[in-house]
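Cont'd.
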Amino acid sequence: MAVTTKATEFGMHTEQLAGRSQQRFFRPEEEERFTYPQSFEVDFKKKAQFDAGPLSISEINLKLRELMSQGYGSIVMKNPGAKHSVAVGILNRLNLTIEGSLGYFGCGLLDGPNVHIKGRVGWSCAENMLAGTVVIDKNAGSTFGAALRGGDLVCKGDVGARMGIDQKGGTIIVGGRAGAFCGFMMQRGRMVILGNAGKNLGDSMYDGTIYVGGKIDGLGVDAVPAEMTDLDVQWLERKLKKYGLEAPKGAKNMQKICAGRQLWNYDNLEPAEKKLIL
Amino acid sequence: MCGIAGLIHRGKTGDVGREMTAMLKSLKHRGPDSTGYALYGKPHGKELVIRFKVAEQDEMSKGFKIHQQVKDRHNEVRRRLEEMDARIIDDAEATEYAYRLRIEFDGDLRRLANFIEDVEGAEILSIGHGLELIKDLGDADQVAGQYALNDFVGTHAIGHTRMATESDVDIRSAHPYWAYPFADVSVVHNGQLTSYWNGRRALERRGHRFVSNCDSELIAVYLADRMAQGATLEDAMKASIEELDGVFTYLVATSDSLGMAKDVMAAKPMVLYESDRFIALASEEVAIRSVFPHEINTFDPYEGEVRVWKS
């Protein structure tokens, strides 16, 4: 009950603030029977590194899988060369450091690993991530964290357009500027933009919360300003500190954007039908 | 989908042919149907370079007469150039059906272009003091090999790998587009213009003609028309963001500049690398990394953004 109250204070109406995201999709009795076919038990103390430069995309992902199957829990990938679809579908705990930049669709469909990318990422990084953390030192392309379901996705530089489109949970943090249409059709989760935000921010958002430290070029339909609470400030300060970031004018001076809920067309539906849609 | 790429050396020349081939090779997966280059060399006084073809690639394997027809058409183009008082300095066969002419000409370029294109099968790919536009079916390796482009030295270039969606797989529909009949203006484009026919009719009413049904050609002619009216390249590009409807990211090149524009939806990708001496842009970072294998700082230009660089 306390969890529900906290979520409501955040301006969110559906999100529970604890637990791995996958637990939300299965009943406990189902979860016990559920296993990921390519999920490995790894030891963080077992370390490995490899050069991705001469490898194809498939070979890079197979190499990662091979190392994880051998129990390596701390892996360093060198020279990724901005290749696409690298480090996708990792469904277990892992400390992965990528020394370089990724192309499109990097780190998609993750559930559990902590990834540190020392370069830039292209479009759709960490799409559909369920749990874990992805931290990018430089810039990110458009559709960053599209349909994110859980975990923390952090870009310390600037991000392109349509970040967190259809975000369903988790947290996205941007150290710099973000492009237009961020948070479009956002359904749950939190988005933090420390710099300026482009036009149509939070357009048609159903739920979730967006915090902006800089100037907002324009709010989208049904995205409305909300009042910052002490809980917001505490959460922001804690979360930003974790990733070595700071709001330029302090967390308490950030703007908070929530759904106005004037566009909620699901109110005529039965709860079971609502669940199907969301 | 299509892939586009551009590069410019500031204050010096470079191996733009080889560099553009590397970039386009790494974008092959975005469009394998045809590949095109607009390469800009150092202009030689008033001398103009004309790149033209007198047949499509697939025509060469059809019929017994095509080889003689190609020769006849080529000779007719030469005859018409002489009739227009153009002095032919050099005439080189780039392929069986495509030619590169160096000429001296002081007259009306539109009239000259119309007169040449009136020859059956003839299509001018480009006319310019620095511009040489080459496009053909196949990937970058094939086209670069066929036209010996890897030795081209110049200041800047744009290129395109095409996935045909709304027009044919032929040279006429391949990119880049020369802004007929404006010297040295070329465009590559990734996206789709929804205002194509309205825009085309408006420009046709102003006396412009189009050689294809491809929406990318509209951008080239639109920009050149604006510049002919006195607008700077940057102003013409900014106007295009407002006036052209659809989703697009395009690159434009003139004799001394390279420009990039992205529509207000930012729906099409573009990655940019910028340094004091060199600028490279492409639909994907892998293309830029084919020229710079080491780690570099790149970023995505934002929605509605226009940028222009001088060589």
